[in-house]
Amino acid sequence: MFGFEKLEVWREAVQYANFVYSMTKAFPADERFGLTSQLRRSAVSISANLAEGTSRMSSKDSARFVEISYGSLMENISEAMIAKEQGLLPDSQFQELYQKAETIGRMLSGLRSSLISDKPSTLNPHPSTAA
Hints:
Blueprint: H1 8-24, H2 35-53, H3 59-85, H4 91-116
C-alpha cells in the first residue's frame, strides 16, 4: 500500500471524482470537450496531487501539493457553478457536489496545517528537510 492510500482525504477525493464523472455523463455530447472535460480533469487532479505530494522529501514540498489539490477543488466548484447556470447541472446535484467539496476543503486545510507545523510529517516516510 502506498502512503497516499492511507489518507482519508485522498479516498474522499477519489469518491468526489467518481461523483463528478457520474453527474457529467448526462451532459450533452457537445460539451464533451468543454465543461465535461474540465470538470473531470479538475476533479481527478485533487487526488492526483495528493498522491504526488506524498513522494516529496519535505513536509513543505508535500504541503505545496496539498495547496495545489485545494486549488483544483476550487476550480472544480467554479466549473460546476457555470454548468449549473448553463442548465447542465440540476441545483440538487450542485448542492451535493458543493457539500462534498466543503468537506474535502476542510480536510485539505487540516492536512496542510499538520504538514507546516513543527511536528514530523505523517504524509510521507521521508524525514523533513525543510528549514
